[in-house]
């Protein structure tokens, strides 16, 4: 009986490892499929009794420990504040993705399953870019809900594509047989990012990732030449391309806001509204700086303090502000610890794994400045899965038993 159960657990865990590749594809295209697969993977984790090794994983992998601590802060935040029960539980449900990190890590202990997941990512990201270009041309509108040429919203799309462009740059160096293919996909992705969808967050991330790539891979002389070339191309893009309109609007509105000279009519511009959200979020944090207003408090508290703005954001468009309003400095410190643990872990990796981990972390940090990637459904699942994929201990360096 015991042998039969163990065999079933081995088979279930193996199937879960392969399901991860499908899971990576799912959050590019389907919210429903992502939800179903996340539940299924959780059930496999329970059936295979991986929870028994959780204490060892949390001890050996600080990222997993910080993610669980972040979730505990949100649970504690349920005990205070004026948010309704439904608001508090809704916010808690958004941030439950932090718990996915130690769960998903157990499916990436074997290098072959990591390769399957990266192949799934490559397929899904490439298809996303191609479908976006097709939608932009007008051949078919796969998701008329979004005006821009995307399947997901513009922010999510640009985040995915920016990192994919960097991933292709990295793979072009480490996969000589497919160098031309990866550079082609990189060029297609950058064109989509700057000339098709024009998501400003993704454009900033994409530019930062290009600079990171040349810093990682080139000599000092090559780095200098590359940085000059990048700067010249950006000057040409911003001054002569009609596709730079949204980027230039963001620069103008940012300057006007900093000079306290922003036209009230422009306060509903997508760039200007972020500054308004941040301004009121900072005021809310100042009201209760230590522990915040409680889990789920952002929406009701924002409505209270910014009643005259006629804006009703569902989040602060900044992960630190969003967490800070709800959990105060305690939550901010824990989230910064979560970020710092990834930087430390990435520095311990070698070769391409190290470069990809640094690239992913840079993408997460930039997106966290302008949006709430953990809070968002597609972005959040993408973030926690990539963290598990980049930082899960392999069979060789893991100190725990696993079924891989």
What secondary-structure arrangement, pairings included, does this model have?
Elements: H1 2-29, H2 31-47, H3 54-60, H4 62-76, H5 85-95, H6 100-105, H7 111-137, H8 154-174, H9 179-197, H10 200-217, H11 220-240, H12 245-258, H13 270-287, H14 298-305, H15 319-348, H16 351-370, H17 377-391
Helix pairs in contact: 1-2, 1-7, 3-4, 4-15, 7-8, 7-9, 8-9, 8-10, 8-16, 10-11, 10-16, 12-13, 13-14, 13-15, 15-16, 16-17
Can you describe this structure?
This protein has helices at residues 2-29, 31-47, 54-60, 62-76, 85-95, 100-105, 111-137, 154-174, 179-197, 200-217, 220-240, 245-258, 270-287, 298-305, 319-348, 351-370, 377-391. The chain has 404 residues and is mainly α. The protein has one domain (2-391). Helix 1 packs antiparallel against helix 2 (31-47) and helix 3 crosses helix 4 (62-76). The two termini are 21 Å apart.
In percent terms, what proportion of residues is strand? under 5%
How do the helices and strands follow one another from N- to C-terminus? HHHHHHHHHHHHHHHHH
Largest sheet: none
Structural class: mainly alpha
Structural Rg: 22 Å
Query: Can you tell me the number of structural domains?
Result: 1
Distance between the termini: 21 Å
Total helix count?
A: 17
Contiguous low-pLDDT stretches (5 residues minimum) are 397-404
Q: Can you give the helix content as a percent range?
A: over 70%
Instruction: Provide mean pLDDT, rounded.
Output: 85
Dominant shape:
globular
- How many β-strands, per DSSP? 0
